[in-house]
Design brief:
- The complex is a heterodimer of chains A (864) and B (118).
- Chain A is an all-alpha fold.
- Among the domains of chain A are: 147-256 and 279-290 and 766-863, no CATH class; 450-546, no CATH class; 566-749.
- Helix content of chain A is 82%, strand content 0%.
- The longest helix of chain A is centred in the last third of the chain and has 47 residues, at 751-797.
- Chain A is flat and about 105 Å long.
- In chain B, α2 crosses α4.
- Chain B has one domain.
- By secondary structure, chain B is mainly alpha-helical.
- The chains are: A mainly alpha (864), B mainly alpha (118).
- The A-B interface holds A 68-69, 71-72, 75-76, 78-80, 82-83, 85-92 and B 22-25, 28-29, 32-33, 35-36, 40, 44, 47-48, 50-52, 54-55, 58-59, 62, 65-66, 69, 73.
């Protein structure tokens, strides 16, 4: 029988359709096949890209293609140029000869760039690119491992479609979690104390477990089963800690400087890394984590079977016993400052301790309480004996209290400690002092020492020598004498009374200062003395009830009459100087614009005109420099910069003909042009902002108590913030702007503006960090849910995952992947205590979640 | 297209031929060139045809050198030409309607003036 061609096609298609499953089954099969192909293709592409030959071939092909495209583009451009030259327009719009020339020049640049790429050693480039891919796969081995689920499901006869979905959820989730944790940890460092941060992250990564267990409880799962989800993770978390440490090993070695990035981590280096670990903290926190794991096992093997038999007494006993344990655990490790003292003391290294002792010895004799404390810290660190450690810890606490009292009472000592513990190398000491309460809640009123009180009294007497200020000076001396009685007050009541008297005394002084500006200036001048620093701080505190360095607006409130007056003068001077500077920079800008026009010009006669003009302008620069001394100074300053080398050259060549022309054609004037525009920006745009800022500060400062109108205050505040942000942002953008603004602000009276800009930058950084933390925590929540879904899909797709040791291992690893990655990150950053605390916290939270799930299930049974 | 191009004139016909075959211009550019052609003076027209001829020579060289790329671009260019002719036809139609409306309006105004005078 002869079958015609068309009929054969139809016949074959129909047969093929009959062979395919229909409806949902068919769609699922299609999806599985498509997904299978996608995974295979991705894996194949990854394999290809790890070979240098692939890179070399593909780059070569792309370059050749780019070369061909460029040939066609060149012809096309020439044709357009021909049309524009013939008609003077293109697309109905006028086209100038300069625009055509510019287009041709750009084309030439692209061609040159392409030639440069072609001239590169492609083999070398390809090798490094392929190495890069290999390295990426190596570095992210763990994150990319879920991609194996697809082939695994295919091999074991599971559902490939769901497996691919699971692999994508897990890979993307793990990769994103890795990045989010990095950002989160960087931002949290300065804002949240580490113990809170660890608890917060542990709580967030456990959210998925909270959701699952609560869902199971409300869905009506058996009351004995609902607690299994959270508690099941507890034993797993323990071995995950070891696994996290192993996988963090290489990055940790790089961070510790044991190996260089890219270097292999040998056995010897592994030993070094292991040596660098703070095993004491690991053991301590690991002990708590193990306790909570044991707690979970007790539930699993004893309490749960009893619950199945409807015997709830073991559950009640279990809950009652572990509730105080958990409470005490969180109190000690997270919430109690006192308990944290020991942990923080242990992080202080011997080098830091020795350095601090040396600096303090040089600066301050009699700092025995600090030396004793440092000694005890080292003893505490060095002993393993539990009893001894307990005694030493008690001693540490009492010593920190002594230090606190000493710091509060002795201004000189406080300053010496502040100086000695400043800087990044003393970070651990700073953290310890903060947690120990030293330096915090420091009473500035107590910081004034005997010598300063005497000095201030003398200053008051000197103020009184002027007959006009005789009465007013008594108010000043009054504050100082009450300050002395405040210092000597012993009971709380005495202190309170002295403080009230101080406030009254300040009120009187304030009235005198408002009444007589001359007196106010004299007082401020006296307080500007270095020796009276603490008296000034105490008076500032009395003025606003807050220490002046807390916020921008408190700082503004605390500005004195003298500072405000100086600020006003400073703003006026800045305005005049900047206007003058703009005028003096103008001739340089004019030269630059003519140079740009010269370089663009294609017409010879136009070029000649411009060359003549440039010569004239360069001559004018020199002549004006000779005649006008101020201009000569500005000129010298401008031309001294490295970026202006080409302009200096032009001035030298201005008398020549061809040489100047050659220089103009061949020279690179980008740097000079950039530098000049930054100078212009500073003096024409930013400097006037200082005037605006000073005016707003003055007005805000002038608003007193009852005169304050909320709307006006709000507007002024936002105006100040805006200007400060703009100035800070611009200063960070270019070094020239920072330097020039630095010069402007260094003029007398400009200090408050400089301080406010710095404070605003620090404030913005803090805001950014807080935003990152909030976003990061939200992202962690989302990711923990995505990962949980991924695990569920994985269990659905690979049949044998529910059974056997390997299945158990993989599943338990993936259910706790959040905790694992967090712990790994902490290990990589050398924060060993935090790394294991994360696991202990997570285990403790899991116990809490289990109890909540049982409670929810019980509540449900009351109603259903 | 007859509205803009005089097909009895050899130069005009040559211009359209060259433009149609060119792969250097976009459809939009070609449309503008056709619409504006009648506005140009004789010298401009001659120069324009010359520029297109020079483009054709250069493209011929590229055709020999990179036949595959040329073929792809030629297909794209042909499609673009057809698309451009369609748009041009729409444009002409629109112009005619506008013109007709304008005449109607002018006649109306004249009529009103006449009535006013009466």
């Amino acid at each position: 029988m002869v079958i015609d061609k068309q009929a054969k096609i139809i016949f074959d298609e129909e047969t093929a359709m009959l062979d395919q499953p229909q409806g949902e089954g068919r769609e699922a099969l299609d999806r599985e096949q498509g997904a299978d192909e996608a995974v295979e293709k991705a894996a194949e592409r990854m394999r290809e890209l790890s070979r240098p030959e692939t890179w070399e071939r593909e780059i070569q092909e792309n370059l050749e293609q780019a070369g061909r495209d460029l040939e066609f583009a060149k012809t096309s451009l020439q044709a357009r140029v021909g049309v524009a030259e013939a008609t003077g327009e293109l697309l109905g719009a006028k086209v100038s000869a300069e625009e055509i020339a510019e287009a041709q020049e750009k084309m030439q640049q692209v061609r040159q760039a392409l030639e440069k790429i072609k001239a590169m050693d492609l083999r070398q480039v390809s090798r490094s690119a392929a190495e890069g891919i290999k390295q990426f796969v190596k570095d992210n081995m763990l994150t990319l491992s879920p991609l194996l689920i697809g082939p695994l499901a295919a091999l074991t006869g599971g559902s490939v479609g769901i497996a691919v979905q699971a692999s994508l959820e897990l890979t993307a989730g793990m990769y994103a979690l890795d990045k989010v944790l990095d950002r989160l940890m960087d931002s949290a460092e300065e804002i949240i104390p580490p113990q809170y941060f660890v608890a917060l992250v542990a709580g967030t990564t456990n959210l998925a477990e909270l959701g699952t267990s609560q869902a199971a409880a409300f869905a009506g799962d058996s009351i004995s089963e609902v607690a299994s989800t959270p508690l099941g993770s507890n034993p797993t978390n323990l071995y995950l800690t070891g696994f996290a440490l192993m996988s963090a090993m290489k990055k940790r070695a790089v961070a510790e400087g044991i190996i260089q990035p890219g270097e292999k981590l040998g056995l010897l280096n592994i030993k070094k890394v292991l040596k660098s670990i703070d095993w004491k903290s690991v053991k301590e926190q690991g002990g708590s984590a193990s306790l909570f794991a044991l707690d979970a096992l007790i539930f699993q093997f004893y309490v749960r079977p009893e619950m199945k038999k409807a015997n709830f007494i073991p559950f009640a006993a279990w809950s009652a016993i572990n509730a105080p344990i958990m409470f005490e655990y969180f109190r000690r490790t997270t919430f109690s400052r006192e308990s944290q003292v020991g942990n923080y003391a242990e992080s202080i290294g011997e080098v830091q301790s020795a350095q601090l002792q040396q600096v303090m010895f040089e600066n301050q004799e009699g700092a025995s309480c600090l030396f004793e404390l440092l000694e005890s810290i080292q003893l505490y660190k060095g002993t393993e004996d539990k009893k001894e450690r307990k005694e030493l810890l008690a001693k540490l606490r009492s010593l920190t209290k002594n230090l606190q009292t000493r710091v509060e009472g002795d201004g000189n000592f406080r300053r010496a400690v502040q100086t000695a513990t400043a800087g990044a190398s003393m970070e651990d000491v700073q953290k310890f002092l903060k947690i120990a309460g030293v330096g915090e809640k420091m009473d500035v009123l107590l910081g004034v020492d005997e010598a300063q009180i005497n000095e201030a009294t003398e200053a008051g007497l000197r103020l009184g020598e002027n007959p006009k200020h005789a009465d007013a000076s008594r108010a000043f001396i009054g504050i100082i004498s009450v300050l002395e009685s405040y210092k000597t007050a012993k009971t709380k009541e005495q202190k309170q009374k002295a403080k009230e008297k101080l406030e009254q005394a300040y009120y009187e002084l304030d009235i005198e200062m408002q009444w007589d500006e001359e007196f106010a200036v004299a007082v401020e001048n006296s307080l500007a003395d270095e020796k009276l620093q603490d008296v000034k701080k105490a008076i500032d505190y009395l003025k606003t009830g807050k220490q002046s360095d807390d916020s921008i607006f408190e700082k503004i409130d605390n500005l004195g009459v003298l500072q405000i007056r100086n600020l006003q003068k400073f703003a006026q001077i800045t305005e005049v100087r900047s206007r003058d500077r703009v005028e003096k920079i103008q001739p340089f800008v004019a030269v630059m614009s003519q140079i740009a026009a010269f370089r663009r010009a294609k017409n010879e006669s136009r070029k000649k005109d411009l060359l003549y003009d440039i010569k004239l302008k360069l001559d004018h620069l020199e002549r004006r420099g000779d005649l006008d001394e101020d201009f000569a100074v500005v000129k010298e300053q401008l031309l001294a910069a490295e970026e202006m080398a080409e302009i200096r050259e032009l001035i030298k060549l201005r008398a020549t003909g061809n040489e100047l022309e050659d220089k103009l054609t061949a020279g690179d004037f980008k740097d000079a042009s950039f530098a000049l525009s930054r100078h212009q920006e500073v003096h024409a745009e930013l400097a006037p902002k200082i005037g605006e800022l000073a005016e707003a500060i003055q007005t805000l400062h002038g608003l007193k108590g009852e005169e304050k109108i909320p709307e006006v205050e709000r507007t002024l505040r936002s105006q100040i913030k805006d200007v400060l942000s703009e100035l800070g942002k611009k200063m960070q953008e270019a070094e020239i702007v920072e330097q020039e603004m630095g010069k402007i602000l260094a003029v007398g009276g400009g200090e408050p503006v400089k301080n406010l800009i710095e404070m605003n930058l620090a404030r913005q950084k803090k805001i950014k960090n807080v935003a990152t933390i909030a976003g990061g925590i939200a992202a962690l929540m989302g990711l923990s849910v995505v990962l949980d879904k991924g695990v569920t899909h994985m269990a659905e797709s690979v049949d044998w995952l529910g059974k056997g040791a390997a299945g158990f291992f993989i599943m338990s690893f993936l259910t706790s992947v959040g905790e694992f990655l967090t712990t790994k990150k902490f290990f990589q950053r050398g924060e060993d205590r935090a790394a294991v605390k994360n696991i202990a916290d997570s285990n403790a939270i899991n116990i809490g979640l289990a109890k909540c799930a049982v409670a929810s299930s019980a509540i449900r049974s009351l109603f259903v | 297209m007859g509205q803009f191009i005089d097909y009895k004139n050899d130069e005009h016909t040559r211009f359209v031929e060259l433009l149609q075959d060119s792969i250097s211009f976009s459809a939009r550019e070609k449309a503008f060139m056709i619409i504006d052609f009648h506005r140009y003076n004789q010298i401009q027209k001659q120069k324009l045809v010359k520029a297109l001829e020079s483009d054709r020579r250069l493209i011929k060289d590229l055709e020999h050198e990179y036949p595959e790329e040329y073929a792809q671009r030629e297909i794209r260019s042909k499609k673009a030409w057809i698309f451009m002719l369609e748009r041009l036809a729409e444009y002409i139609q629109e112009q005619k309607t506008r013109q007709a409306k304008k005449f109607d309006y002018e006649e109306l105004m004249k009529l009103r003036q006449k009535l006013d005078q009466d």
